[in-house]
Structure formats: structure tokens, C-alpha cells
């Protein structure tokens, strides 16, 4: 990633804007903070939970119970590694149905005990392999979407890196959705989009321009509720500043959402996503 860092630094020094594809590459940067970094920096007394009580353990979904400024919370996120060996163990952050069932189990438990849920989204998408489909990938994602829509506890989601397709949305149906400045959030990767639309994945830069996948784009369309600033050159340059920003944001949002009743939380979350098509179409016409 040294070449990427050099290109980004050169653009920033010359006053050029970062292209959507630059942001895609930054979102994928191997040194970008991961779910484990956020948990270590923001929470205390973290207790890891594993398994879906049905199939195998899926390392690409990571979560458990923790304290946030003394408030019991449930934390769930996609997990990527810091090197090839770790990425292989985490399936490069692409969950199978077992991972989404594990996330659902933790969310149901959080609702039972009245704990706010905080999710960290960073995935190129759900695992598309035959085995995943055989064991109910689409059904597992659909159940998460349905349950998250009706949860009676606060849900806050933060897109920290890549947020692609239903694999991201399966832990992203939240009362409040935020993105890091250089994160991306879309229906699929630019490479996949280019392959489908033009039959050529090499047109990924062109695809990233038309997909409107940056934080600025999505905030303008009303898809997300806010943008978390990053250090110049990306979150990996100074992770602590990002942790500090997120800490303040989460504290404010949890305090606000905990004042709402369970029915209010579920209703507002449902309406938020029902209105999203209308907001997006209005923004696209402008």
C-alpha cells in the first residue's frame, strides 16, 4: 500500500480531490483500523461471543458484550485481518450464513436485556460460494433485515471501510447510520458493477464515479446521518483521532436514543428505511 499512500499524499499536497476510486482503495487499506481496534479503543470489559448454536463458528463476524462509558452494549462487526493469514481465517470479511445467524443471536440477546447495539461495517459482501447458498445465505440475511427493522433497542451503525451489498446491510439496519470520510457504501464493488454493466471489471474507476458510493454522496441523498472525519491520507495515518471522534458521537447518540421507547425506536427505524428510496431518487434528480 506504499504506492497508494504516495499517490494520496501527492494529490492532497497539490490540492486535488480524491476520486471515488481513491476512496475505495483507502477503504480497503490493509492498515485501516479493524473491528478489534475499535473495540480495544472504545469499549471495556469486552466479552467475545461465538457461534450461531446451529453450525460452525464464522470468524468474519466478530462481536460480544461490552461496556461503553459504563453502559452495557452489544458490539457486532465484520472482521478482516491485518495480513494474508488472518484474512484467510476471517474469509476476507465475507460472512456466511453462520456469521449472520451469530449476529442475529447477539441482537436478540441485546434486545432481551435492553442493551443498545453498535455495529461496525467493513465487508466486500456476503460470501458468494455454493456452500453458503446451500446453508441458507439469503435466508439468514433476510431474517437479519426483518429482525433489525423491529428491534426495540437503539441501533447505531458505522461504515468504517467497505460496505457492500446485503452483506453489509444485514448488520446495518440502524436508527442512526454514519460513515467514515473515506469509507464506501454500495450495492456491490466497483469491479462487480463494471463486470455486470459493461462486461469489463477493468472499468472499475468509471463504475465508482457513477455508483455514488462515497460518504459525501450518501449524506447528500439522506442514506446516512453523518460523516466522521479522518486524518489527511486516511484513518490509518492517525487512528486515535478517529477513535476520539467516534467515542464522542456514540456517547451523544446513545444518550439521545435511550430516551425513546422501544416502539418509537422500531417505528422510526422502519420509516427511515422505507423513505430511503424516495430520498435517494429526489437527490439523484437534482
Note the topology.
Elements: H1 2-13, H2 20-27, H3 35-42, E1 44-48, E2 61-68, E3 71-78, H4 84-89, H5 97-112, E4 117-123, H6 130-134, H7 137-150, E5 155-164, H8 165-169, E6 176-180, E7 184-186, H9 190-198, H10 204-211, H11 215-221, E8 226-228, H12 239-257, H13 262-274, H14 276-285
Parallel strand pairs: 3-4, 4-5, 5-6, 5-7, 6-8
Antiparallel strand pairs: 1-2, 2-3
Helix pairs in contact: 5-7, 9-10
Structure write-up:
This protein has 286 residues and is of the alpha/beta class. It is 49% helix and 17% strand. It contains 14 helices and 8 strands. It has helices spanning 2-13, 20-27, 35-42, 84-89, 97-112, 130-134, 137-150, 165-169, 190-198, 204-211, 215-221, 239-257, 262-274, 276-285; strands spanning 44-48, 61-68, 71-78, 117-123, 155-164, 176-180, 184-186, 226-228. Strands 1, 2, 3, 4, 5, 6, 7 and 8 form an 8-stranded mixed sheet that branches. Strand 5, helix 8 and strand 6 form a beta-alpha-beta unit. Helix 9 (190-198) crosses helix 10. The longest helix is centred in the last third of the chain and has 19 residues, at 239-257.
Describe this structure in a few short sentences.
This protein is of the alpha/beta class.
Which structural category do the helix and sheet elements fall into? Answer: alpha/beta
Rg value: 18 Å
Q: Kindly state the number of beta strands.
A: 8
* Distance from first to last alpha carbon: 37 Å
**What oligomerization state is this entry in?**
single chain
Low-confidence stretches: none
Q: Strand percentage, roughly?
A: 15-25%
What composes the largest sheet?
8 strands, mixed
Series of secondary-structure elements, N-terminal to C-terminal: HHHEEEHHEHHEHEEHHHEHHH
What best-fitting shape do the alpha-carbon axes yield? globular
Helix content: 40-55%
Specify the number of helices: 14
**Mean pLDDT, nearest integer?**
92
